[in-house]
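The passage that follows is intended for readers who have already worked through the single-chain material. We present the inputs for a multi-component assembly, then the predicted structure in tokenized form, and finally a short commentary. You are encouraged to pause after the input and sketch how you expect the pieces to fit together before reading on.
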Amino acid sequence: MSWHVDASDIHRYQEAALDRVAAASLEAHLTDCGECRSLVVVDRDWLERSWSTIAELVEPSRPGVVERTLTRLGVPSHVARIVAVSPALRISFLLAVVLVMAFAAVASTSNPTDGTYRVFLIVAPLLPVAGVAFAYGRLVDPAYDLTLASPIDSFRLLLLRVVTVLAVSIPVGLVAWPMVPAPSAFGFTAWLLPALALTLVTLALSSRFEVWLAGSMVGGGWVAAMVIAVAEGYETFDTRAQIGYAVLALLAAVAVMVRRERYDREGTPR
Amino acid sequence: MTDAELLAAIVDRQVDSLRELHERHAPWLAARLAHRAADPTLVEDALQETFVAVWRKAGDYRGEGEVAAWLWGIAIRKLIDRLRRDRVPRFERPSVVESAEESVLAGIGYGELGEVMARLSPELMAVVQARILDGLSTREAARLLGIPTGTVKTRLMRAKQIMREQLA
Amino acid sequence: MTVMLTDVRKHYGSVHALDGVGFRLDNGITGLLGPNGAGKTTLLRCLATVLAPDAGRIDVLGFDPDRPDERTEIRRRIGYLPQEPGFYRNFTCFDFIDYLAILKEHVDRVERHAEVRRVLEITGLSDKSTTKIRKLSGGMRRRLALAQSLLGSPGFLILDEPTAGLDPELRFRFRELVTELSTDRVVLLSTHQTEDVAAICDRVIVLDGGRVSFDGTPAGLAQIAAGKVWLSDDRPASARIFWRTTSGQFRAVGTPPSGAELIEPTIEDGYVMLVGAAALEEDTEAA
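Having made your guess, compare it with the prediction:
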């Protein structure tokens, strides 16, 4: 290139202070000369913003199926992301839920003698308990410490995950339940209240113990109580029992709310 | 890396190369687009669409001519698309302008050709710039300038006639 | 910007992880040295508001972590790199940082993505944005963990053993990075590499058995071993610790015999004098 443009000419061009011919000439030159192109004055902030927009269009982060579905249902994108990351939604957990429900339903139907529907009623409430044990905590969430240390309300995050667990396990149960031959006295809610109660008790206990331990205690305690009750001939799913489960659920919910600070930080507050 | 090498890397999906290309060319492309449309948002949109298009079609560049010229071809057409859609005012030149003679004396200009072009009226000059300097088709020039295609043709013929007369 | 601790205590059963820790941090890099089990991670977790101490007062940038609202304010202003950062292995780098940015309340998508790109670029991970974490090397994962701690340009950076497991070149680059980041913010860097302290720390605090046994400059720490480091041709009997140098002599730290050839102490020497040989054993393990 034998001649180049002056920086001052470029400035005048950028201020639209060159006449048409000079401008056209300069433009033609810039097309061919990288050196002079670099003399064009640019606002760095503007350049960064321009690039940010382009980068977003060119390489958007693609959300997964769950996230997209939730967003389409009207859930705000950041909430959708948090839910999508929930361990509960991992396919393995989903699969486990479906398998166990199916197994329980089949077990109930294979033996038509009276009372085996109880197998289902005993197993079904345990699934959300297992789900809660997988919903959060150091064992399951690799970024647990980072999550605790972030400004987002850990308690709300926890509730969101628990609700996700329930939202996944309960419909599966509702679908499996009709396959179970039960006396007409037992509607589909027979196992719902126990499920809710056990879940809330697990949640409450996890403010004091590690969540997997809380889940194990609740699970073990429930099965033991059921076995004893059946052996002794006590009715465990009638109206009176259901009222008992409702009360238990309420007490557990209160306990959770009262101790909510404990989910936000480890160690006992003073 | 040269511009052509950057394009090859972009074909290979290297976003960093697109960023480098943006770094080198966005400033002058934006300035040149701004000389054809008054609305800065329009210019920015056209610019962004240009680079997104480069990302998608970097393989279309066949090594003919400067990459900068190829980029301008994309950019001006994106701008025209937007102008057509949005129906906004064209670029209005502000009143503070050097005369053509002064620019020529300052060493800018095509020399003889520059002098000749300086004698054209603004309307004719605009057509020459669009059709010849920017390389647009008749229809594209018409969209850019907001005039009918017939007018583009006649003005271009007139301009060429005047220039031929001057140069003869 | 200041961070202050006063008489902080934490025990696990009969073990006193923190036994009356107090100090004050200002802008700049402070190194936290100490052997394993000294309570460094416990202390950092308390400062990061992840763990509640049993007693004592903590003030992070003017806020008290015992009050829930103020705790949230602290969390908005800190960047925390845990000793063992966990990752969602199937996430890409971009998605992981993006998720953490959501947790840090960056709700607007466009702004958040620009911030994600910014921290990835600072840590040199831009070209790994779309790589899955499980395919990254250990050093890169550490850089990723560092990147997330920079989200939102926090005023207080808490880094727990950030150079552990990094090879020397990466460690060097990391030090450069932290030094650049340390203007106008408080950086607390927990390490058992005395070279990190020597290279970039303005101040150093030594934690041993849950207590602060030194709080001052790196030079001051070295001076603790003044007159206690010597070269010897034979195995030194009165040394706390010694090792062979490249010249074949022994370099010893402890009580020098009379007439011994004394040499200038390094930070490591001072550290050994304070903490004992246990400190060095860990270093050789980690190396």
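Commentary: Chain A has two domains: 7-58, 65-263. The radius of gyration of chain A is 31 Å. How closely did your sketch match?
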